[in-house]
Description:
Layout: H1 3-31, H2 37-44, H3 50-56, H4 58-72, H5 74-78, E1 92-95, E2 98-101, E3 106-110, E4 117-118, E5 129-133, E6 139-143, E7 150-152, E8 155-157, E9 159-161, E10 167-170, E11 173-178
Parallel strand pairs: 3-4
Antiparallel strand pairs: 1-2, 1-11, 3-5, 5-6, 6-9, 7-8, 7-10, 10-11
Amino acid sequence: xxxxxxxxxxxxxxxxxxxxxxxxxxxxxxxxxxxxxxxxxxxxxxxxxxxxxxxxxxxxxxxxxxxxxxxxxxxxxxxxxxxxxxxxxxxxxxxxxxxxxxxxxxxxxxxxxxxxxxxxxxxxxxxxxxxxxxxxxxxxxxxxxxxxxxxxxxxxxxxxxxxxxxxxxxxxxxxxxxxxxxxxxxxxxxxxxxxx
Length: 196
């Protein structure tokens, strides 16, 4: 038997194993009374490790499923479209040179690894704060009874609606909240936290 046939058989076997795992995940989730398409789409990317990953790290599978849902749900992205220019402008957080697009309705921030945005710093609480999408399309920052508090532009807040250019301080770390294109991504000189 030639090496091409062996390779072809190997590829077909791995695809069969992958498909069988996805069917198993689908059936298991459907028996639990949940929508099976999220777990299947989240686990599919892990190929032949789909079932073990869905069992050992279900939160990871859920995050991947949320990512795919945001990518392929056009109505989700419409909330980021500028009515005048028609261009997309995804709100984002920038911390330590890293950009985190806000494509989820809720982003948990804290020192523990199971946060959506993990900040490994001793002045940041385990579950320090979260950013949530309000019904009006604006993002709001909520402090979660953190040890060192949360500030926006220097003002201590428990909850505040975020505006372009806001500086969010969690403990000793600063995060910038930006909305708009890269051309207007510099923080504004004056910004005041408000509850509107």
